[in-house]
Amino acid sequence: MFGKKWFQTLVAFVLIFALILLISKVNFLFSPIIKYVQAVAIPIVGAGVLFYLTKPILTFLEKYRVKRIFGILIIFLLLILVGILFVMFIVPIAQNQIHNIIANTPKMVQTVEHWINLLQSNQITIPPQVNDAINNFMSNIQSHVESIVGYVFNFISQLVSFVISLALIPFFLFFMLKDGDKLVPFITQIFKKEKADNIKSLLKKLNYTLAGFIQGQIIVSFILGVLLFIGYFAMGLDYSLTLALFAMVMNVIPFLGPFLAVIPAIIVALIQDPIMVVWVLIITVIAQQTESNLISPNVMGRVLSLHPLTVITVILAAGSIAGFLGILFAVPFYAALKTIIMHFYQTYQDSKDNKKDALI
């Protein structure tokens, strides 16, 4: 029985769960490590995203015999130039539109109340449960507004530490670009050649998966944002740039992001002119179809090979566990975990085939 595969698998699961239980009982030992990871998480993640976005540029420059240090300097100059252009041309327009949105918030609330009252006047078409929920929301709207204000102040208090973390991103990015190629040899130097080659293969696959996701998702989100801005601007929708920027950010979340992105545009269109809701939906469908059928297959390819139902399930589960951050990092984490599992499974299969060949 001890040599049976099912028994060994069962023992492995029992040991894993026992280890998890033991860690949960002594989690106070890991709290300093967790705090340290939380402190450096934003700089590392931010620098990692920029690393995968700028690494192709560095590789291109080195291909033409530009020294790495000068290539990194060129990349930083390009990033500074992009930042300056963004601050000069995009931020003032977005800031003005956000100010107008805040100024017109009372009008928006009145319009929403009007539509709710209009729906409530037709009691036949509204289920009692929905009607009770609407009445509960309207009676507690003041408390909801106060809660939002509390969230805003909490956000401002956290913004300071976030800005400090952002200031560390250039330092992390510099060393990632400069010494990133030394990481794999440093990790594998303590292993024998066969295991070292296996680890190198795994790290190469992980690098390919993360690069494909980050580069593809950023490019796809940018193109989709541009398409939506063109459509919103052409139809005369108010706050078109701000809504397109919001859609660009939300589209980073796979599958669910586009649905979240269109909600503010529908609300603005409903307040501006109800018929514009139809045009917003048409433009969104055209942009999404262009993205899903033309842009994503060519930009992201089949790097992730994830079924949409799997992605939605992972996002919902991660969101219930870790909130917005869980939603944001669920897909790359799952893709990396899948890559690791598939690699070790392939290694196991190769070892079995080698044993069979040896017996023959």
UniProtKB/TrEMBL annotation:
Membrane topology: Multi-pass membrane protein
Transmembrane domains' residue ranges: 7-30, 36-58, 70-91, 155-177, 210-235, 241-263, 270-289, 309-337
GO cellular component, one term: membrane
Keyword Magnesium in record: no
The organism's place on the tree of life at top rank: Bacteria
Pfam families cross-referenced by the UniProt entry: AI-2E_transport (PF01594)
Annotated keywords: Membrane, Transmembrane, Transmembrane helix
Chief place where the protein resides: membrane
One annotated GO biological process: transmembrane transport
Membrane listed as a keyword: yes
Localisation: Membrane
Family statement drawn from the similarity comment of this UniProt entry: Belongs to the autoinducer-2 exporter (AI-2E) (TC 2.A.86) family.
Descriptive protein name: AI-2E family transporter
Organism per entry: Ornithinibacillus sp. 4-3
